[in-house]
Amino acid sequence: MKNWQLNTPVAFLIFNRPHTTQRVFAEIAKARPPKLLVVADGPRNDRPGEAELCAQTRAIIDQVDWDCEVLTHYADKNMGCKKRIASGIDWVFTQVEEAIILEDDCLPEASFFQFCEEMLERYRHHNRVGMVSGGNLQFGHTRGEASYYFSKYTHIWGWATWRRAWQLYDRDIALWPAFEQEGWLKRAFEREGEQEYWRQSFQLVYDGKLDTWDCSWTFTALVHGMLQVVPKVNLISNIGFGPEATHTHVVGIHANMPTEPLEFPLKHPVFVLADTAGDLFISQEQIAPTFIKRQVRRLKRYLP
After folding, report:
1. Bridge partners, 70 (sequence order)
2. What number is the average pLDDT over the span 235-249?
3. For the chain, which residues make up each domain, given as ranges?
4. Which helix H or strand E contains 72, and what residues bound it?
5. Could you tell me the sign of the dihedral formed by the alpha carbons of 103, 223, 87, 246, in that order?
6. DSSP annotation of 283
7. What is the H or E stretch that residue 96 is in?
8. Contact indicator for 158, 135 with CB cutoff of 8 Å
9. For a pLDDT cut of 70, what percent of the chain falls above it?
10. Which residues contact 141 (CB under 8 A, 6 or more apart)?
């Protein structure tokens, strides 16, 4: 990585947490992207002091001290997680063809940037690949001999994609009723527990009752048969779990996951196919674990 220089734009999604934002910004600054696109939500009227926190968070962007074009897309009023992030990424891809995307609590390992850039270049015109993830949620399980594998799950804690993929994004998942009625949910997910998890999630998004953008991205990937690239080691640590978070209030197994550097040059897999063992692990251990596994996980919280 010594002679490598980042050429890919970085999109930075921020809100009201100056502490985590500062830590993530410091890693972006080390990578020195030539273009930084910053998306920020506005303060909520019913949260005293939030306007000041939003202002402090945005002021961090003024610390850019390398040769970099900085573009900002700041909301005056609060739009909410779903509308702000979705519209923000929409804006990003009116400006650039591809981008590395980081939220204010997704702390990247240094090799994350080079990995994303190389994957964006390699699969730029491969329509079956929809995104590149920096997160590996296999907890030490290795999938194959290559430097990365493919998955049907969209891990969005530090990721990258292309305009050609994002333009397929359907924020309100208009095709959901037909998708379920024609049996595609059962074809996509074999386990009944996981089917129910996604059925409830997609229905809440469709009904406008769930303020999140990422379920719609998962649905988009399913509808269009897009895979994601997953590194063989974890390159992202989510440092935002806790009471200040919008969604990740409970500190669970995914909080503050350790990272390790990815070795270069990369070794590429032979086939562009989802790793069934890797995806089954995600399903059984994280999306819809059995009752016994859930109970064991709860008990571990109380053990020394």
Report:
1. 36
2. 69
3. 10-300
4. strand 69-74
5. negative
6. I
7. none
8. yes
9. 90
10. 278, 281
First to last CA, the chain: 40
Q: What residue spans of 72-213 are helical by DSSP H?
A: 81-95, 111-122, 163-166, 176-181, 184-188, 192-206
Q: Do 119 and 229 contact (CB within 8 A), yes or no?
A: yes
Are 124 and 130 a contacting pair, CB within 8 Å?
A: no
Amino acid at 266: L
Amino acid present at 198: W
List, for residues 26-60, the tens digit of each pLDDT value: 999 999 999 999 999 999 999 999 999 999 999 99
Residue of higher predicted confidence among 256 and 63 = 63
Average pLDDT (9-15) is 98
Question: Would the CA dihedral through 77, 80, 85, 90 be positive or negative?
Answer: negative
Amino acid at position 114, single letter? Q
Q: Is the pLDDT of residue 247 over 90?
A: no
For residues 178 and 47, is the Cβ–Cβ distance under 8 A?
no
Q: Tell me, which fold does domain 10-300 have in CATH? A: Spore Coat Polysaccharide Biosynthesis Protein SpsA; Chain A (3.90.550)
279 strand-pairing partners: none
Residue 40 pairs with which residues in a beta bridge?
A: 14, 74
List the structure tokens of 61.
């962007």
Could you tell me if 226 and 129 are in contact, meaning their C-beta atoms sit under 8 angstroms apart?
yes
Identify residue 288 by its one-letter amino acid code: A
CB 130 within 8 A of CB 227: yes
Residue 274 pLDDT > 90, yes or no?
yes
What is the distance, to the nearest Å, from the Cα of residue 243 to the centroid of all Cα atoms in its chain?
A: 20
Cα–Cα distance measured from residue 80 to residue 86, given in angstroms and rounded to the nearest whole number? 10
State the virtual CA torsion across 76, 219, 246, 242 in degrees, nearest 10: -150
Sign of CA dihedral 102, 106, 110, 111: negative
- Among the listed residues 37, 38, 41, 39, the one whose alpha carbon sits nearest the alpha carbon of residue 79: 41
Nearest to 102 by CA among 126, 72, 135, 79: 135
Q: Say if residue 295's pLDDT is above 50.
A: no
